[in-house]
Amino acid sequence: MHHIDVRIEKDVYDVNNKLADRNAQQLKAHGVRAFDLLGAIGSGKTALIERLVPMLAKRGLRAGAIAGDVYGDDDYKRIVSLGIPAFNANTGKECHLDAHLVEHAIDHLPLDEIDLLFIENVGNMVCPTDFRLGAEKRIVIVSSTEGDDVVNKHPMMFRDSTIGVINKIDLAPFVGANLDRMEKDIRRYNPGMPVFRTNLKTGDGIAALLDTILA
């Protein structure tokens, strides 16, 4: 029985990865660069999009977004109010987006009007890791309010990401979070990954982060 479970799981990932590659090709064909945003509920994924969109506009770059949530359209509404093309992808029961859901979303977006596409994954620190979506880079966001052991509890998410963000640095003293410990944990799991400390309320740290996203 155990072998069958493992084989089915592998098949699921193989099918997903093929679709992810197809998504990547389709986005590339339209000149769209896509970025997968990962992190817990409340870490700052939507807030990061809200900060980056006007900064990109100043550089003449047009953003679009896919809002992934189990249910509802709270994040989607926030993104739409930025005046960019967006699609609300509800997963129902699933705690992550997969390449098929993203393919469906891409079909509903005006790709020729988008330079950068942000794919905001479902707020979860475990499930999204195994499912590639076709994005160029994976940005993982954690906040000081999740506790400074949050990185250590979710190593896979950091091993599989390309850019790390520690958000809500202003609140670290109030919740007793050691930002250096968080950064050290990230470096232990992914030594080469650039890590940024941000305060999305004020915009601290965002300019350097954007340069690395676009690099």
The largest sheet, given as strand count, sense and whether it forms a barrel, is: 7 strands, parallel
- Percentage of β-strand residues: 15-25%
Round the mean pLDDT to the nearest integer and report it.
96
DSSP strand count: 7
Question: What is the chains' assembly state?
Answer: single chain
State the share of residues found in helices, binned by percent.
40-55%
Molecular structure report:
There is one protein chain. With 215 residues, this protein is α/β, with parallel strands linked by helices. It has helices spanning 2-29, 45-58, 74-80, 99-107, 150-153, 155-159, 172-175, 179-189, 206-214, and strands spanning 33-39, 63-69, 86-90, 116-120, 137-143, 163-167, 195-197. It has a 7-stranded parallel beta sheet, with helices on both faces. Strand 2 (63-69), helix 3 and strand 3 form a beta-alpha-beta unit. Helix 1 (2-29) packs parallel to helix 4 (99-107). The relative contact order is 0.17.
